[in-house]
Amino acid sequence: MHDVQKERDLRNIQIDRVGVRGVSYPVILLDKDNRTQNTIASISMSVMLPREFRGTHMSRFIETLEEFRGRVSPANLDIFTKRLCEKLNSSESHVKFEFPYYFRKKAPVSGIESFSKCDVNLEAVHEDGKKFDMIIGLSLNVQTLCPCSKEISQFGAHNQRALVSLKVRCSGLVWFEELIDMIESAASSPLFTLLKREDEKFVTELAYQNPRFVEDVVRELALRLDDEGRILWYKINVTSSESIHNHDAFAEIERDKR
Q1: Which of 21, 68, 82, 183 has the most crowded CB, counting CB atoms within 10 A?
Q2: Torsion-angle region of residue 65: left (phi > 0), alpha (psi -120 to 50) or beta?
Q3: Domain 135-258 belongs to what topology?
Q4: Contact status, residue 74 vs residue 134, Cβ threshold 8 Å
């Protein structure tokens, strides 16, 4: 059959990215505690299309996914993006995987375990068969308690959930669980799926003893990332869904350690 995509295009315009997005696909991830974990990812894949080609072969994106049989991790995205370039005859490829990641967590006093979840995304670019860049993104909810409210109030202090969104470039393997621990240690308190009364008392008092503005959380996390030699670059955003204000509060830091 005639291959329309291979027809020569005369408009002389390169397309920076052409591909597929919103591909829902099962993937198998590396898991620090259980070796592997199954989840469902929303995937975007694209390549640079040279000016002389009319179109790309969309089916080849899915074929490449099939070659990897859903086994995707930060450790093999370099190979995956390079394979996309080869299969689609392009000098540049881009991919993004977004998925929920689940981890077991013990309640602080009772020790009862339950699943907790964070949202992870992996973004990678491969250029000219040599240059590779990957960003690991992770979003996690924590608790913050307002230092100002604690200082001026006769009883208690307002507290709320805050969303910490972290992106990092790394020189070696960094487990999602390691990033989760850094984030939670920077907050007033972690969040838990299952708490008994003794756990709830502990978490409430822990937050009260560790009041944090969004500015405090973003700085505390930056200190932890600065101390980790495998982290080369990071971007942190902390957004607090304020419980006594009709707006959010946020703080952000971006730093290149190279």
Answers
A1: 183
A2: alpha
A3: Urate Oxidase (3.10.270)
A4: yes
What's the token pair of residue 27?
């993937």
> What is the helix (H) or strand (E) element at residue 224, kind and residue range?
helix 214-227
- Distance between CA atoms of 240 and 142, rounded to whole angstroms? 9
* DSSP output for 197-216: HHHHHHHHHHHHHS---HHH
Q: What is the pLDDT of residues 211-229, one digit of tens each?
A: 999 999 999 999 999 999 9
Which H or E element spans position 35? Answer: strand 35-49
Instruction: Tell me the pLDDT tens digit for each residue of 19-60.
Output: 999 999 999 888 888 888 999 999 999 999 887 777 688 999
Place of tokens 């969303």: 163
Return the bridge partners of 131, or none. Answer: 127
Number of C-beta neighbours around residue 13 at 10 A: 8
Q: Residue 149 corresponds to which tokens in the numbers above?
A: 């409210």
Each domain of the chain, given as residue ranges in start order, spans 1-129, 135-258
- Radius of gyration, CA atoms only, the chain: 22
Please provide the CATH number assigned to the domain covering 1-129: 3.10.270.10
- 76 Cβ neighbours under 8 A, 6+ residues apart: 68
- Sort residue 125 into left (φ over 0), alpha (ψ -120 to 50) or beta: beta
**Which pTM was predicted?**
0.91
